[in-house]
Specification:
Residues 75-178 form the NB-ARC domain. By secondary structure, the protein is mostly helical. It has helices at 2-6, 9-21, 25-31, 44-61, 74-86, 104-111, 115-121, 136-150, 164-178.
Length: 181
Amino acid sequence: INIILTKDNNSYRSFYNALLHEGYRDLAALLQDGIPAISSSNGKSSMDGMTSYVKTILCEGGVPQRPVVFVTRPKLVDAIKQKLCCLGSDPGWVTVYGMAGCGKTVLTAEALRDHQLLEDYFPGGVHWISVGKQDKAGLLIKLQNLCSRLENDSTLSQRPPLNIEEAKDRLRLLMLRKYPR
């Protein structure tokens, strides 16, 4: 509790929600009166527009939603944002790695919830793919799906790739020609 009290109001809310969702309703009830109110900002209409834009772009791209129990980690999120911004001038990859369950997906998705970042560096949207451990058939399905998503506005309706090598070649060409950034 002492650690939570040194954090911001979102930490207290997240702790309360974690207690609720993990089956500790009696403890959550004891803390309910202390939940900080969420203040509404004066620029609500512009926030709504940004939130709607961000939600639409991320939803269309398949980016995971914020979990119910969420604890902010601004330093790590900012580090990912900075790396993503570097892709604007120097195309490449940003790799987020760590042990299973340490929050890589949550942190990366949170970094993408930035209106300005999406507008400036991802004007064509975001395409999120969770690969994980896949057999060859499962991997082929994911690659076929990605090809289909990236070719969505193509005038040529191409058949899906028939094997992993064909899918890799098609994705390579799509990335080089249609999505160089």
